[in-house]
Amino acid sequence: MFQYEFMQNAFLAAIFISILCPMVGVFLVLKRHSMMGDTLAHSAFAGVAIGLVMGFNPIICAFIFTTICGLSIEFLRDYYKKYAELILSIVLTFSVGIGITLISTGKASGNVNSYLFGSILTVTKADLIIMVILSCISIVVIYFLYDKLLYTTFDEEGAKISGINVKAVNYIFSLLVGATISVSIRIMGILVMSSMIALPVATALQLDKGFKPTLLLSILFGFIDIILGLIFSYILNCAPGGTIALTSVVILIVIIIFKSTFKSRN
């Protein structure tokens, strides 16, 4: 399996994705903004469509468009303070509308299905380089903003009082989410992108640990989900997005059953 270059590229990309997605996802989930990941994943569809129609790199276009949408979500929060979920519907509708309109023109220069469902065959060296660069930048930014992100996640008002520029932190975090989604869509696919952001975190939360252990466990479960999903995808000759999503759900169910069984015995 690993003698093929496309599998080597896919697994290298998977390693970075398995670190980056849960790392960003744990903050999104604890902020109760997990649906933001789904919204921006669909925003990536519009970015990919723009790239395919205009002849630009779809991953870079997806990053630019998801970044714009992420910043727009933060900007619109001031106008819909009591209806935050409505913002996600607005951005999602706008993005999907653009994507469907452009793709339906028939002018796309590539196969959009590989972006919708994920593909282990189409991850090129150029894609891998872009993924590595964006992933490394995102991880470094999270490392330096860790304390501020943690504070704003659990107590945004307290963070404001303590002098943290919460607005700036939220805008930077939106950029991180956009980068995370854009580097992951080649493997995960747009339609199930949010599963890699939310489900490893949901699995880790079942173990009732502190924040740092939960973060590390999320990365561990993310790695297991994506590696097993890629292996099943290769064996079954199907899109990796679906197998990774199913694997993550199965592992979550297994952990829930294990936890329930352990508690009942005690």
From TrEMBL:
InterPro entries given for it? ABC_BtuC-like (IPR037294), ABC_TroCD (IPR001626)
Which GO annotations describe the biological process of this protein? response to zinc ion; transmembrane transport
The Gene Ontology CC terms held by the record are: ATP-binding cassette (ABC) transporter complex
Membrane spanning segments where?
6-30, 42-66, 86-105, 126-146, 171-202, 214-236, 242-262
User: In its UniProt entry, what is this protein called?
Assistant: Metal ABC transporter permease
Regarding protein family, the annotation reads: Belongs to the ABC-3 integral membrane protein family.
Listed A to Z, the keywords are:
Membrane, Transmembrane, Transmembrane helix, Transport
What SUPFAM superfamilies does this protein map onto? ABC transporter involved in vitamin B12 uptake, BtuC
Q: What is an example of a Pfam family matching this protein?
A: ABC-3
Q: What is the phylogenetic placement of the source species in the record? A: Bacteria, Bacillati, Bacillota, Clostridia, Eubacteriales
State the compartments where it is located: Cell membrane; Membrane
Topology versus the membrane, per the UniProt entry?
A: Multi-pass membrane protein
